[in-house]
Sequence to fold (279 residues):
Amino acid sequence: MKIGILGLGLIGGCLGFDLRSQGHHVLGVSCRQSTCEKAINLGSVDQASLDLSLLASAEVVFICTPIGLIVPQVKELITHLPKAAIITDVGSVKMPIVEAISPVWENFVGGHPMAGKTDAGIEAAQRNLFVNRPYVLTPVATTPSNAVTIVEEIVRSLGSIIYHCQPEQHDRAVSWISHLPVIVSASLIAACLSETDPEIAALAQNFASSGFRDTSRVGGGNPELGVMMAQYNRQALLNSLYQYRENLDEFIHIIEGKNWELLAEKIKLNHQALHNFLE
Ligand code: NAP
Fold:
């Protein structure tokens, strides 16, 4: 199959590697010539260009640009595509994208691979990033079933676990497990940076180890992605943050009151519930 990728960054680059290894012919379009050359040299695409017309012969196109560019890029792309071409995207937010694209391109299937890295760009791309990871598809009532089936087949070949839900359900769910953690982790780093005693600050930096690495990783990632998640999933993220603030206040209250039994009970309940999220 001829598959197009628009945006040869981390996710686009990873997709290119895996799709080529499945025997697909991969056409890539990106913003900078240097990225196109790197993508070819690394083996992520067969052909690359700055010109969207390269994708005119693709049967399926994955849109892998930053969230805010997905809708305008699709509107430009469709002037080059035959009606039968299928478009899917990998954006971390679904409702505004699906609402804007579905009316202008029938064969559009919203998608979101739940896999990533803190580094951005083609240099960070790797093989098999999507293996055993959830990959959410958000078709709507008007999406042709044939388009969904074809995107599902490709996603399954990446080794991903496919989920279907409504775009709005997707955005609310990812606000809990993806977008809230970015802001919580960013606040954690900012709080550590507020230490005013330089000696204590230096000690804290030297003592930082696995616990700090686990809890700070997503708060120091790609800033463009963090801002766009907040901008395009603002209300769901705010709802999660308001709830989080309540939980934080509850923990503060328990510790101020030296209620150690209740604190232990809460941590124990969290421990039991955690396996529902992570194995
Ligand atoms: P990234 O590494 O920064 O890649 C984005 C790429 O888009 C850049 O390499 C850039 O290419 C290209 N681009 C920017 N403007 C463009 C334009 N006008 N035309 C063509 N290409 C353009 O970001 P990413 O992490 O792969 O994220 C891409 C998408 O994946 C986002 O929508 C994000 O929500 C989604 N996503 C990300 C993750 C994650 O953890 N990172 C996980 C799941 C989904 P140049 O290098 O040529 O400038």
User: Anything to note?
Assistant: The pocket of NAP is lined by residues 6-12, 29-32, 35, 64-67, 69, 90-92, 112-113, 116, 120-121, 222, 225 (CB under 6 Å).
